[in-house]
Design goal:
single chain; alpha+beta; 4-stranded antiparallel β-sheet; 26% strand
Length: 97
């Protein structure tokens, strides 16, 4: 499964990058395949391991912010591995033709 999620601290002012970095650090240290862009962090793995990482990433922000907003989208597709890269590769292949 692939989960794309964003964690936004609320009540800390306009500069939230420092808080978001705490969440991304948890994801990167998990060892699971992941990618971060301007809007979301995507992570790939089995349900329990991915959700555990998301929960810990949220907790890292929650430890320093009075309120946290989470947006999460999941692609649950049994039997697919390396979807994080293969889905992008498929689109790139179509763009080349």
């Amino acid at each position: 499964m692939i989960v794309a999620f964003s964690v936004t601290p609320l009540g800390v002012g306009e500069e939230v990058g420092e808080y978001v970095a705490d969440a991304v650090r948890v994801v990167r240290e998990s060892g699971l395949p992941n990618r971060t862009d301007a809007m979301f962090t995507s992570i790939e793995g089995e349900w329990d391991e991915v959700m555990d990482v998301v929960k810990r990433a949220v907790a890292a922000v929650e430890a320093r912010a009075p309120r946290v907003s989470v947006v999460l989208k999941a692609d649950i597709r049994p039997g697919v591995t390396d979807g994080l890269h293969s889905k992008v590769a498929t689109v790139e292949r179509h763009l080349e033709s």
